[in-house]
Specification:
The protein has 357 residues and is α+β, with helices and mostly antiparallel strands. It has helices at 2-16, 22-33, 45-48, 63-69, 105-117, 145-179, 184-211, 216-225, 229-240, 248-260, 266-272, 291-294, 302-312, 315-320, 323-327, 334-356; strands spanning 37-41, 51-52, 55-60, 75-78, 84-92, 120-124, 131-135, 138-141.
Length: 357
Amino acid sequence: MAEDIFRVRFLKSLQMLAPGTEFRLGIENVIQAKTGALIVVGDSPEVMKIVTGGFHIDCEFTPARLYELAKMDGAIITTPDASRIIRVNAQLDPNPELPSQETGIRHRTAERVALQTGELVVAISQRRQVVTLFQGNSVFRLRDIATVLVQANQALQTLEKYRNVLNRDLQHLGGLEFEELVTTGEVCGVLHRCIKVLNIASEIKNYISELGVEGRLVKMQMDEMVANVQEEATLIIKDYCNIKDKSPADILNSIRRAYEDDISDSLFLMRSLALGTTSAHLEQQASPRGYRMLNKIPRIPPAIIENLVDRFRLFNRILRATIEELDEVEGIGEVRARSIKNGLMRMREQFLLEYMV
């Protein structure tokens, strides 16, 4: 949870420094002037404890002011949103025992301040004209737009390939569910593909944050390609998972974190869903509850879907239920019962057609 919170904070920091923002314009002015700068974004008590000297000015942030004030020695302290410049020509005195991999005084100080306070610290190299961000124990060097765009487009191409394969996998799983031929291994395989798509999209979000206004087209393409993937993954977990004390969303998030740490495989997924413990269990039959398929029927409220699953327990029983049996479920009248029955029949024909191809 702490890692997720820090990741969100760091993404916000990248967005603050994205091309087209006031902060980025000010930094580009400093780079062009070849003066260098050390900027602490945040005036928390932890920061102010290690600040000595300088001038308290408390003025509105503008690119021109940052450019002019960077000509002075010492650090510049801003508010957490970089909307105001609080102090300039400040001396920073972080704990010298904190580890640092940097060699220059400015960058070494920036890294230690970030480690000690957790705030964003921006170091602009005077000679190399490189902008380095420090926040907590993270270090990130800003890149030019062209480089980031190339990498973002490469990631989009990878995402498109994975999404196309996922679409086929989802159709195949649907056909197997109607035929009652699903195995645990096939469930894990489709879920694996869903998570890969979601994690590639998360990587692209980092590029979008770094690109700022230049990332709008990248975001539009990404949003279109990942539409409904998280919902599909959550419903698959809801259909098959045997864990009762955690929500499907929490289970999905914990699995995604494991994928980021590269410790995942089919056995890991199977165990995460409490579907088995050994490779032999991957071949055993698995029966869905029906959440994913029922959600595809138009105008069926979530409460009705819950009532159906509570009543029949498994999807194959819902499929075999007569209109009269469906009508007996709370909240379902004869009209809705016919709608559900006809909707399932149409889906069966569609999925089996795709399954046979």
